[in-house]
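input
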Amino acid sequence: MNYGKLDAALATALAGRGEADADAEGSGLAVFVQLADGVTPAEREGLAALGLGGEDLTCTATLTIAQVAALSDQASVRRMQLSGRLRLRS
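output
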């Protein structure tokens, strides 16, 4: 895993999860993924398999620990950031 591409909140969330949680149902993390400029069509197809489709350079997906690790090692990924919970304003 390339921790240099992860923000502090995402790295902390990953460290707080044990191996038992890694593959548990519903244990995904909401993550913003920022892609590098010039992503090739072949790289986009691989990212689409993880739910990161479209032409935007910033995507949001719910990822497992293994998926975060795999994405962090890809050259087409610039950085990854943990998404905060959205709250309704009253």
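quick obs: The helical segments are 8-15, 19-22, 41-48, 65-72.
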